[in-house]
Amino acid sequence: MTTSSIATVSQRRSVHVALWVLQVLLAAFFVFASVPKLLGDPMTVQMFGLIGLGQWFRYLTGALELLGAIGLLVPRLAGLAALGLAGVMIGATITQLFVFGSPALASMPFVLCLVFLAIAWGRRRSIPLVNR
To answer: Does the model's pTM come out above 0.90?
Structure first.
């Protein structure tokens, strides 16, 4: 093995480890984020009431966050889960901007969307449609 091929392998391994660390941290974050939605925390119920789509949307959002968090920890599902959570974060960004009128609060889901897209790119080989 040449020095450049060793460096390339080492770099790929570092990216792989960094992605896993990020995935585990985000999975934990989204498990905790989904709990108030699924258990009916009064503040969360009120917030989703303001959105105006009904409480079914709170359950859907909580379920998508929980399933996405679990998917981030499953190698075959990690890329697809990251794409799904990016979609949830696009919805959260739009909701913060247009329903709540809060550009400052919209920055967090927007940044998370970009992070999930980076994870999806890094795990693109696990996404079935990309491998065709």
So the answer is: no
Residue 73 is given by DSSP the state T
Total of domains in the chain = 1
- Separation CA 40–CA 49 (nearest Å): 12
Exposure b/e, 76-100, CB count within 10 A at least 16 = b:
ebbbbbbbbbbebbbebbebbeeee
How many residues would you count in the chain? 132
**What does the alpha-carbon distance between residue 21 and residue 25 come to, in Å, rounded to a whole number?**
6
3-state secondary structure of 17: helix
Residue 8 lies in a domain: no
Full residue range of the structural domain in which residue 97 is found: 19-126
Whole-number mean pLDDT of the chain? 92
- Residue 91 CA neighbour count, 13 Å, CB half: 15
- Is residue 60 within a helix (H) or strand (E), and if so which, with residue range? helix 55-72
82 assigned to some structural domain: yes
